[in-house]
């Protein structure tokens, strides 16, 4: 019996690509071998050319993700708890800080345990639906975090650059910003579920993310537009805000030095200048936090661009670093805010005395808040 028609489908292309590597790897095993059958339709043929990852990498990745998850859940949980139980920290601007901590808390609470379990089995074991939801969570909380940081930068810009002419942010204004952040992030997160873009297993097969090997323009356009909306646009707005913040601070310091010279004194110290100095310190803290966020997410962006533009060969090991750096941003924020903000630290020591390893600070500077003085002044 002659077979006149046989469509090999994508599997044949995958096997052909894999077969070309056999001489080099000396084995017929691939990184896809342990993937459950119900997940195979989501795996791109690109991954069939790679041998299984060393179990040591899976063990290290699971350990790192477990440690990052514990630190993030504990740290961000403390930020949310202390901010909501300390009256002096319940300011409009601190609503943004709580939103940031909540987003980071949820990210690691949802994403760390599944990845640790998958690393133990060396493949994703929760099925296609959980894969989609896992990738959705990463996209949702990541986008919410960066836009929350953008709103914090705008708050700093409003207070430091505009000064007393600025309109103080109200509780309702802060809540409206938070609502807008989550609505915006959710719209980008659910788009792949309706056909614009796609969520698939990553190269290490223990996590899921965007499909950067689908060369159709429907998929490419999603990654490109999404990167503009949730990476380049926030980056531009934050740089814009901090450029004028630094410019305003420099002009203020120059004016104070010139005034001191005219008065034949070493320096001028007033309550207004003290407030300005405190706000400048908080601006530096926020800038450092934002810089760490971009350091965390840039590797994943590079991997996505390398996939859709075919600029380099992406290996399963490379996707591990993308996952680790992307998840690590959820750890930075509670550490930065806890160490750098005396008022938060004082409240932390009051509720958890065992954590006090130094004398409690006396400074009452608000955590990443807009100028406390402006909040106490009636709006014009």
UniProtKB/TrEMBL annotation:
SUPFAM superfamilies: Family A G protein-coupled receptor-like
Function in brief: Visual pigments are the light-absorbing molecules that mediate vision. They consist of an apoprotein, opsin, covalently linked to cis-retinal. May play a role in photoperiodic photoreception.
Protein name in the entry: Long wavelength-sensitive opsin
Region described as Disordered: 360-380
InterPro entries: GPCR_opsins (IPR050125), GPCR_Rhodpsn (IPR000276), GPCR_Rhodpsn_7TM (IPR017452), Opsin (IPR001760), Opsin_lateye (IPR001391), Retinal_BS (IPR027430)
Keywords: Chromophore, Disulfide bond, G-protein coupled receptor, Glycoprotein, Membrane, Photoreceptor protein, Receptor, Retinal protein, Sensory transduction, Transducer, Transmembrane, Transmembrane helix, Vision
TM segment ranges: 56-82, 94-112, 132-154, 174-196, 223-251, 285-308
UniProt GO cellular component terms: membrane
GO terms for MF: G protein-coupled receptor activity; photoreceptor activity
Similarity comment text for this entry: Belongs to the G-protein coupled receptor 1 family. Opsin subfamily.
GO biological process, one term: phototransduction
Topology term for the membrane: Multi-pass membrane protein
Species in which this protein is naturally found: Limenitis weidemeyerii (Weidemeyer's admiral)
Annotated Polar residues bias: 362-373
Domain G-protein coupled receptors family 1 profile: 75-337
Taxonomy of the source species: Eukaryota, Metazoa, Ecdysozoa, Arthropoda, Hexapoda
